[in-house]
Structure formats: C-alpha cells, structure tokens
C-alpha cells in the first residue's frame, strides 16, 4: 500500500462468466523479436510535465506507447506516462532508476522529487530518476469505475447483517467496474506493468534498469527481477511485500500489526490525557476507541457533512496509524469522533476532512478503483462469502478493531479470472530490502519473506520504529547510508543489518 496515502483502492459472477471465454489462461508474452520491436525502438519525445513541482524541478515528461495486451502486440495500444530528473553529472552517469510508490494504485510521476532528497549527490549524479504512472493509474490510461467511494477497503462491521451489507456493497462495486471498464480490466496487472517497465528501458536505450520501490512497489520490483533478471541492475525494495502472501493473505496480515499499533498509540494518548481526554490508561483509551465502532454501528456518527459508519471508522484510524509521527492526528480523530458521537456539533479538522473526502467524495484524481483492478487482476480470491465471515469471526478476539477490516470481503471475490497465473518469485538477483519492525501495512515478517525468496538480497532492519516506507520518508542515517552506498557503487552490506532510530 502506498506510504503517503490511504491504501487507495471487480467483476461479479455474471460478468466473470461473460469474460471467461475471452480471458487467456496464461498467455505467452511476445518477445522483442516477436512483435515488440516497435515499442522498444520507439522515439521518446520529452516535454514539460504540466505539473508545477516537476516543472519547477526541471523535470521532463513523456508518453511511452505499450501494447494493451502483450499477447497481441500488434493490437490496441495505450501510453504510460513517465518523468525524468536527469543525472546531475553526465560523466558519472550509470543509467536509469525506475520507481513505484506503492498502492497498488499510487501514481508515481512525481515520486522521485521527494525520494531524491534522501539521496547523496554521488547517487543523483549517476542516475536519471524516472517516475512512472503505472498502467491504469494517473495519466496512464486510468481506470475509473465511477465508484461512489474512493477505496474498496472497508470494515465488515460488528455483526452478520453488517457483513452481508458489506458483501453486497463489494459486489456492487465489482459490477460497476465491469460495466464501466469492461474487458480492459484484465490487462491491468503487475506482470503487464513489469513488461511496460521493460519497454521504457528499451525505449530509453538502456540495457538494464535500477529500481526503487515502496510497499506494493516492492512486489512490482520483485516481479520485474523474476521476469527480466538479466535486465535488473541495482534494486532497492523498501517496506516489502512477501510475494508468497501477495493479495488476499497480504490484506489479512494487516490485522495484527494494526492492533499492535493501536496499543502503542493508546499508551501515547494516555500519557496525554490532559490534552485529549481519551483515558488515563491505555486500556481506557482502547475501550473508548473500540466503543466508537459500536456506537457507529447503532447510528452513524455525524462529522460536518459526513456520516461515519461502522464500515468506514476503522479506515480513518488505519490511515494515520501507519506512522508514529501522526499519533496526534489519531488522537485528534478519535476525540472528534467521540465528541460527535456524544451529540456535539463537530466540523472535522483539515487532516480528517481530507481522509473523509477521499472515502466519501472521490474525484477523478483521487478515486482508486485502479487499485482494485491491479489486485483483483493479479490473483483470484475466494468467492464464497462464508469463508470471509468465518475468518472475521475467528479474528475478533485477537483483532477486535481491525479484524473485520483485514478479513473483509472485497470486490475481488466477484471479479473475473486473472489473465495469467501469479508470478512465483525466487531468484538470486542482488537487492537491498529495507523494513521497519513496526510497519503496519507490510509487516516485518513480510520483508523477511521477500528476503528469503530473493536469495541474493540483504535485509536492513529498522528496529522499534512504527513507520511504513523508510528511505525518502523517515530520516534514518543508518538506512540511508546503506541505500546510498548500494546505489552509488553496488555494494550490499556484508551481512543483514539492524538500524535504530537516530
């Protein structure tokens, strides 16, 4: 999931049946000698980005043409948008560094503007930093299902009737996506994005790519190394997804670390009861917070023009809990919800207003149906609602607030079958994996899992820090030194390394 935003997030059984005849079970992608030559050798026309920050930074942008369906390279095409911050010293230039911010569904055109702030001059001298909106996202043939909400991620609620409503809602989102986007959805996938990256490589005249990815971007990067190992140069995967647990299990893994983060935050808030008045002990703070979900189940909590129900309230906590530096935002959100639940008129703070607006009032630039297209298009999920309900019931004791969120049924349960089998990642391509032990979105064990299957990798652990996305987001001298050293001269740490907060 993307580090800086809500993990922004389909096809019903009838549509799945309709598409089944047109979906290729495991199409063989065309090779450069089998129809991709015109894409790898296309002319790239650089131009201003029409993006204030990128243009002010001197970046250039271009559209790179790729096949919609790599099994039919002479068929319909789309374009993917890329940006370039040129290497500052042509004499030291090594090549290009592609990137992805996560999500899936995060637009990445401007990602490297922020990430390069953590890079040393020796690194920025060596690489053209390439931002990219993946297919189906941002400026790259965006998927827009016209949903009434910004994300498919919601909680199932407190009881069976609430779960049944959640399942009906998920099926409705899937149906709407199918009706709006049709068969194009089956071509929005991680494997196709990896192929797009390789077309970008070829179009820019490079033999290899280096790469930096956050969150889901680590899965994309790992898939690229599996599909194109000889074209992979220096790879950094920050806040990693275990590819063996990608999709359904990855989401189920969210429950435990978010409950732990809630406990950690509750202790923080209890120590500041004089300011927030949420409870004098962590137990009292947690009881108040869990009680708000029960209140929202009985009657949605009114915050300004918004009605926060039991399905959305956990999402509003999930967003800021990913970073301990936002503990005050969590406390403010809970205080506002508690006041509103007591009948007080509350106008949401700017931070809370932004999250509410994303959930309830998405626009063309913030809606995240592209996330569903990628996740649901990558891997099939169980179709029986009862399997989700059983998982939710089993999770309630250990995950009272986030179990129903992590185990909820998604539109993927009503989606058409994926066009290809999931990628099995297991290779010796060298890579540097960076992982915080307190990560709530890609738990620490997930980074360890990627390290195990990428046998040439080294793992940098950021110990006892609750944050998602480290390099370029959370200043840490030890982790930054490891990443910069690797990008500068290709030297991985001799052994796995543990870093602590500065």
Secondary structure elements and pairings:
Blueprint: H1 13-20, H2 37-40, H3 52-56, E1 60-67, E2 77-85, E3 95-100, H4 111-115, H5 121-124, E4 127-132, H6 160-181, H7 190-203, E5 209-214, H8 216-227, E6 232-238, H9 248-252, H10 255-270, H11 273-276, H12 282-298, E7 301-303, E8 306-308, H13 313-321, H14 327-341, H15 350-360, H16 369-378, H17 385-395, H18 403-406, E9 431-436, H19 444-453, E10 457-463, H20 477-489, E11 497-500
Organism: Amycolatopsis magusensis
Signal peptide: 1-25
Domain Peptidase S33 tripeptidyl aminopeptidase-like C-terminal: 401-499
Short descriptors:
502 residues, alpha/beta, 9-stranded mixed sheet, two-stranded antiparallel ribbon, 20 helices, 40% helix, 13% strand, disordered N terminus
Low-confidence stretches: 1-28
Report the total helices: 20
Judged by helices, strands and strand pairing, the structural class is alpha/beta
The tally of beta strands, per DSSP, is 11
Helical proportion?
25-40%
Major sheet strand order:
1-2-4-3-5-6-9-10-11
- The average pLDDT value, as a whole number, equals 93
User: Terminal Cα separation, in Å?
Assistant: 25 Å
Question: What does the overall shape look like?
Answer: globular
Strand content bin = 5-15%
